[in-house]
Amino acid sequence: MTSFSEAIRVECAEFGVEVQTLNPGYVATGFIDSNSHLLPPFLIPTPEQYAKSAAATIGFMSNASGFWAHEMQVKIVAF
């Protein structure tokens, strides 16, 4: 998905279109029970928290996790 988004980003840049790839972690939805994971609940955003956080990255990052805790998890795993 990242490569596809990068290709679209390059193709649309001349038209002023922003393309961003979001790679989310767990979000507390009906499919994910935040109490059943090893992560503390404050690291698992609600859909509203995630949407607000992800929207704040538009125009600043071309590839983002969308939530501060998800970004930390990605950096720790990549380390």
Structure description:
This protein is mainly α and 79 residues long. The chain has one domain. It is built from 3 helices and 2 strands, in the order αβαβα. Strands 1-2 form a two-stranded parallel ribbon. Strand 1 (21-22), helix 2 (47-55) and strand 2 form a beta-alpha-beta unit. The two termini are 22 Å apart.
Keywords:
single chain; 79 residues; mainly alpha; two-stranded parallel sheet; 3 helices; 39% helix; elongated
In round numbers, the mean pLDDT is: 84
Radius of gyration (Å) = 14 Å
Order of helices and strands: HEHEH
Low-confidence stretches: none
Question: How many angstroms does the end-to-end distance come to?
Answer: 22 Å
User: How would you characterize the largest beta sheet?
Assistant: 2 strands, parallel
Secondary structure class reads mainly alpha
Query: Within the largest sheet, what's the order of strands?
Result: 1-2
Q: Given the C-alpha coordinates, what overall shape results? A: elongated
**β-strand number:** 2
Q: How many individual domains? A: 1
Q: What is the share of helical residues?
A: 25-40%
Helix count, DSSP H or I runs of 4 or more residues: 3
Strand content: 5-15%
